[in-house]
Amino acid sequence: MSVAYLTADGRAEPYIRAVEGVKPEPAIVRISHVDLIEMHRDRRMYEWQTKVRLPRAPG
Fold first, then answer.
1. Which phi-psi region, left, alpha or beta, contains residue 16 (left: φ > 0; alpha: ψ -120 to 50)?
2. Contact (CB, 8 A) for 35 and 50
3. Which of helix, strand or coil describes residue 2?
4. Spatial CB neighbours of 1, under 8 Å, sequence gap ≥ 6
5. pTM above 0.70, yes or no
6. How far apart are CA 41 and CA 38, in angstroms?
7. Tell me, what DSSP letter sits at residue 17?
8. Integer CA distances (angstroms), 47 to 10, 41, 42, 44, 58, in order
9. How far apart are the first and last CA of the chain?
10. Which residues pair with 52 in a beta bridge?
11. Long-range contact list for 43-51, CB < 8 A, 24+ apart?
12. DSSP string computed for 24-57
């Protein structure tokens, strides 16, 4: 999975066209844990620190 954003006004069409032709294949993902993070942007870039790591429940 990929996530993106823009911070300026502009046309969405070039980005829509870029992903319209993508034909992703199904994927199986094994998740062993989830991290809860604290995120901030103090120095003109995103920074984060893991606060808690939660293991996946058995089953």
1. alpha
2. yes
3. coil
4. none
5. no
6. 11
7. H
8. 26, 6, 8, 9, 31
9. 24
10. 36
11. none
12. PPP------EEEEEEEE-SSSS-EEEEEEEEEPP
Q: In 3D, which of 30, 48, 29 has the Cα closest to residue 40?
A: 48
Spacing of C-alpha 36 from chain mean position = 14
Please give the single-letter amino acid code of residue 44: R
pLDDT tens, the chain, 59 aa long:
566 677 788 898 988 888 898 888 998 988 899 999 999 988 888 899 999 999 988 76
Exposure string of 18-55, with b = 16+ CB inside 10 Å and e = fewer, is: eeeeeeeeeeeeeeeeeeeeeeeeeeeeeeeeeeeeee
Token digits for 51? 């606060």
Tokens of 41: 């942007």
